[in-house]
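Hi R.,

As promised on Friday, here is the backbone we talked about, encoded as structure tokens. Could you run it through your design pipeline when you get a chance and send me back a sequence?
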């Protein structure tokens, strides 16, 4: 009798996809019809199949080395992955460990015809993901051109109205003004943090302030009335690099697109000081005769 594990995945991007429970139920029925014992269930909820950053998926691949099962059953191949490279790579890993991948809805064997069919199914799954991402981005860009909220938590100092436009949260805006005022007067992050935390001010998520939250606030152009969208660089190793920006040609940036909290005078003082501090980090650690007086001409 074959021994199998179940792998199920549900992505929150598409509410039409079968739930984890529905996938598992269909797989168990398949296993029963094919005289197969289910050893374990691996399931990733709200995880995209375009990446292998799925804890249960990776655990299943690792466990395949133990020789405890000889089959992985999925409801459809796109539950396993929608990336053709990942499908080929991890199927090879499973095969090396004596484990084969089986789909309930796609009856694939080792025949030449099945190889072609599987390639078509994998290509269609990858196309579906790429096309879905493109359509989602198209909708987000249209929303952004109207200077409306595109998702996630708004920055400290703002709320989102029913029509998705930004409105000022007066209480939070006062916190933002304090941060800019103290920094523009020459005090550092520690001074700002001590004042805010000692007087009970909180971040947007209700936590105490730290250096990262202060830094992000001081750099946020929204506070001077500039709406920006699509600034953050693409994911690296499945994580967004919030310190790295895309080329300006890809960014939607609209002056006056959002209510202003900080005036240009304070904003410019803060920017000048932040730029000065950034340049200072590149100076020599040792103290020399002309330290701070001689600079590179380029």
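Update: got your reply. Pasting your designed sequence below so it's all in one thread:
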């Amino acid at each position: 009798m074959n021994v199998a594990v179940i792998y199920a995945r549900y992505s929150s991007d598409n509410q039409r996809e079968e739930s984890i429970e529905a996938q598992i139920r269909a797989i168990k029925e398949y296993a029963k019809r094919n005289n197969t014992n289910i050893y374990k269930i691996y399931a990733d909820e709200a995880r995209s199949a375009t990446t292998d950053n799925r804890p249960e998926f990776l655990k299943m691949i690792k466990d395949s080395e133990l020789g405890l099962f000889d089959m992985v059953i999925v409801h459809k191949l796109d539950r396993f992955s929608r990336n053709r490279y990942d499908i080929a790579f991890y199927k090879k890993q499973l095969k090396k460990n004596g484990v084969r991948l089986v789909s309930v809805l796609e009856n694939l064997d080792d025949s030449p015809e099945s190889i072609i069919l599987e390639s078509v199914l994998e290509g269609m799954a990858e196309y579906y993901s790429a096309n879905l991402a493109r359509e989602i981005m198209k909708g987000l860009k249209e929303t952004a051109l109207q200077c409306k909220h595109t998702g996630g938590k708004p920055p400290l100092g703002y709320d989102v109205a029913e029509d998705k436009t930004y409105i000022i949260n007066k209480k939070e805006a006062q916190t933002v003004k304090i941060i800019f005022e103290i920094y523009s007067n020459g005090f550092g992050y520690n001074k700002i943090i001590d004042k805010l935390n000692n007087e009970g001010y909180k971040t947007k998520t209700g936590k105490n302030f730290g250096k990262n939250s202060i830094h992000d606030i001081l750099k946020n152009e929204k506070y001077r009335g500039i709406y920006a969208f699509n600034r953050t660089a693409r994911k690296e190793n499945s994580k967004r690099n919030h310190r790295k920006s895309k080329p300006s040609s890809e960014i939607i940036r609209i002056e006056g697109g959002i209510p202003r909290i900080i005036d240009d005078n304070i904003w410019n003082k803060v920017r000048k000081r932040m730029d000065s501090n950034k340049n200072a980090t590149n100076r020599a650690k040792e103290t020399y005769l002309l330290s701070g007086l001689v600079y590179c001409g380029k």
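One thing I noticed while checking it: The beta strands are 2-10, 36-45, 71-74, 100-103, 158-160, 166-168, 226-229, 235-236, 239-240, 252-255.

Thanks again,
M.
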